[in-house]
Amino acid sequence: MIKVEEARKLILTCDDRVRHVMEVSLEDALGYSLAEDIISLIDMPPFRQSSMDGYAINIGDSSNYKVIGEIKAGDNHDFHLTSGEAVRIYTGAPVPDTSNAVLIQEKIEVEDDQIFTEETPDSGMNIRPIGEQIRKDELALKAGVRINSAHIGFISSVGVNKVKVYSKPSIAIVVTGNELVTNGLVLPYGKVYESNGPMLRSMLASEQYNVPEVIRVEDNYESTIYTLGTTISDNDVVIITGGISVGKYDFVGRALKNLNVQEIFYKVNQKPGKPLFYGKKGNTSIFALPGNPAAALTCFYIYVYPLLKTLEGASKKELNSLNLSSLSNYNSKETRAQFLKAVIQEDGVQILGGQSSAMLSAFGEANALIFLPENTFNITKGDKVKTILLPW
Amino acid sequence: MIKVEEARKLILTCDDRVRHVMEVSLEDALGYSLAEDIISLIDMPPFRQSSMDGYAINIGDSSNYKVIGEIKAGDNHDFHLTSGEAVRIYTGAPVPDTSNAVLIQEKIEVEDDQIFTEETPDSGMNIRPIGEQIRKDELALKAGVRINSAHIGFISSVGVNKVKVYSKPSIAIVVTGNELVTNGLVLPYGKVYESNGPMLRSMLASEQYNVPEVIRVEDNYESTIYTLGTTISDNDVVIITGGISVGKYDFVGRALKNLNVQEIFYKVNQKPGKPLFYGKKGNTSIFALPGNPAAALTCFYIYVYPLLKTLEGASKKELNSLNLSSLSNYNSKETRAQFLKAVIQEDGVQILGGQSSAMLSAFGEANALIFLPENTFNITKGDKVKTILLPW
């Protein structure tokens, strides 16, 4: 049985997808990873820019200036100021070459075309120099950045409106299990409602992946090998829920074997999610997630999520995590590594009740997972625990 | 000038939208807020469920049992076991009423139809009782919960496939500023590329709001009052970028005044984002965000975001925040409250360079904002600082 850390390392180094590069308009780039560095097309600001409403002056000997004109944001006037002259100017407007300071309007007295100041103006005051934020041809964003809203604003401001990004991996979700009934139908004795399919779909949608229809497979060997064979050859990633086990009813395990899927690991020394399977066929990754919903959710964020980020060329591959003080005591006889549902608070992280792997209700409140290494039997309030932030 | 805390309080209590309730299928419910409590339609699990692969037994006097049948997950068999009898059983399968424990297969020796155990079985062992996770008619999720992927899994598992949610607020983005040029065009002297529109659109898209086309308004009074008049009457929220100021070129300020928009607050004692305006006309909220991109981004997450969550009926209205140790020293002469771009690390939060309000580049790295109250002049490494987590 493999350790959590080793399993995660195997996932993160499994970067063998042939990525397709495509050019998209910036508006459509949210959630894609950059396939090239973004280089600024301009100096930003492109001109000496006033950072205040006030008066651009050519610093003179006395405390009064003669106003010879006006420049609003967006104007392209370039007045020629001599010493002791000023122009009325507004935030964002270009400061004339012949001006070396901007006086703030609140500190000025005005009389006709004359202004008076009590300040001794410093050269460069309230002027943003050309290229203060970024220079033309300088690196704006590195290849591998997964584009968020702030990046879209930044890229836009440096004049770039098309970007080269990596295509997303194609993903199939295959749900197995004779006990599953589609939500909305009557529930016969011995059956439960299928919930992993809709949950996985919405997790993928939240992360801006193309959301596949959930494929339900009948509980017999022929259907299983046919469905897995086609989804594996058609996709970069196949996520099977229902898990694999050993024994005569494990059609998934037999099918994967007969399809020559190479086992990378099977069973991780963790709770929940011990019977996790990860395999490869060619460049396709195959996960079999445990059927228990909370175990499936944990395995998705701890293993599938970093693989997807790796395959799409993102340099940041994992959820944000940090060490926080536990606000709870916790005792366990568990020798496996544990992922505990938790909720972050102002001053630390609280462990939630309902940690059984079949328990999804605690995830209704949870916004984090606490990772406890193997053989952690006691957590005392105040202990630092590794906290992985869920994306909501 | 209003304080940050007061401005935020005014936003959070501004819950006067007439919310429309709609029924959506669970698949389409991601990112909507529940308009009603979700009540479980079933006991979950709905039957006594085996949590292991093994043998369901009727506990007898000796350590061997006679196997009289087999129950797979999804089967509806109900064998009648007498003392000393067993059935082969698999994880998720229904345990017969006449069985009171499940033995794990790993601890069993099998010979023909006889099994032997060295354990002394406890009553109820490895059986999930009916309704362990939730009882029929019990509360599953409260009205006001904004539905995430875990909720979709949970709701699905309790048999609910349609939910009543609140409609989303309709939002308009209006971009003003004579200095702005659409990305992709040539940049004349005195102009800069427009970046707030695309940034705001992608922030709204990331939060699953209907994404409006960005409306550009010409820099004259007639266009401004016409555009603002129609967008205010057609939407729940109007976000204007470019800000308002005082003076003869402030068409936005004059138009809002002449449209009888009531000022709730104008200017917040903060950096960046001091010239923030928030007003109301009827049930419509109007923001004028500062034109500086980083200030606009900060104002969006600190003020607009909680208002949107309030209007859509979400009980959780603000980004997650927590107190973390600063990993940086920071000095400032600023008396206003400050929002600093920052990045969380394993052991605390690091303050980024480039805090000027025109600097968006630091947001390329940032995943958090540090809030410093008024008159905070020094932060020393190790000090606890309030850290607001950005949603990426």
TrEMBL record, chains A, B:
Pathway(s) of this molecule: Cofactor biosynthesis; molybdopterin biosynthesis
Gene3D superfamilies (UniProt xref): MoaB/Mog-like domain (3.40.980.10), MoeA, C-terminal, domain IV (2.40.340.10), Molybdopterin biosynthesis moea protein, domain 2 (3.90.105.10), Molybdopterin biosynthesis moea protein, domain 3 (2.170.190.11)
Domain MoaB/Mog: start-end pairs: 172-310
GO cellular component: cytosol
Top-tier EC class: transferase
InterPro entries hit by this protein: MoaB/Mog-like_dom_sf (IPR036425), MoaB/Mog_dom (IPR001453), MoeA-like (IPR038987), MoeA_C_domain_IV (IPR005111), MoeA_C_domain_IV_sf (IPR036688), MoeA_linker/N (IPR005110), MoeA_linker/N_sf (IPR036135)
GO MF term (any one): metal ion binding
Biological processes, Gene Ontology terms: Mo-molybdopterin cofactor biosynthetic process
Requisite cofactors: Mg(2+)
Keyword line: Magnesium, Metal-binding, Molybdenum, Molybdenum cofactor biosynthesis, Transferase
EC number annotated for this UniProt entry: 2.10.1.1
Catalysed reactions, as listed in the record: adenylyl-molybdopterin + molybdate = Mo-molybdopterin + AMP + H(+)
Role according to the record: Catalyzes the insertion of molybdate into adenylated molybdopterin with the concomitant release of AMP.
Sequence similarity: Belongs to the MoeA family.
Protein name per its UniProtKB record: Molybdopterin molybdenumtransferase
Source organism (scientific name): Aquimarina intermedia
